[in-house]
Design brief:
The chain is mostly helical. Helices cover 54% and strands 4% of the residues.
Length: 144
């Protein structure tokens, strides 16, 4: 699954999944959110979209909206299908406590909706070079 040639809605869905997967990995001790926003903006540009995170960071409430959506997506990666019966039966304290955080985040705007709101297709001339003109093949991203 790549990002090129997708409709805006499908791009937003796939980018949200990819962003959450990367955020779940949390590779840096500091700066993960900034690095992910920069990386995903460039990746979007390569795919023919302008992903402008700035509107989501305009003030505290819009930034919090993004972070709640991100946290909800990361929880779904860390604890797939976490529900109340599972939380009540687990011996894993983190899983139990995460369920209660998940309940608070249930009303969060989904990450793909936020990405969709921040993304516009670029005119053809702004896209990256066609894949055929590059040395390396395009690799497909396949989330688990």
């Amino acid at each position: 699954m790549g990002f090129r040639g997708l409709s805006l809605d499908l791009f937003a869905q796939r980018m949200a999944r990819f962003y959450a997967d990367l955020d779940y990995l949390h590779p840096f001790s500091e700066g993960n959110s900034r690095a992910l926003r920069t990386f995903t903006r460039q990746l979007a540009r390569e795919a023919g979209f302008d992903l402008d995170w700035a509107p989501r960071n305009a003030d505290g409430s819009t930034r919090d909206r993004l972070y709640r959506a991100r946290d909800l997506s990361v929880i779904h990666r860390a604890f797939p299908k976490l529900d109340e019966p599972r939380a009540m039966e687990t011996d894993d304290r983190m899983e139990y406590e995460t369920y209660w955080v998940l309940k608070q985040l249930q009303q969060a705007t989904p990450l793909d909706v936020i990405i969709r709101q921040c993304t516009t297709p670029l005119p053809e001339r702004h896209h990256a070079l066609p894949r055929a003109s590059r040395d390396e093949p395009e690799e497909e991203y396949e989330p688990e």
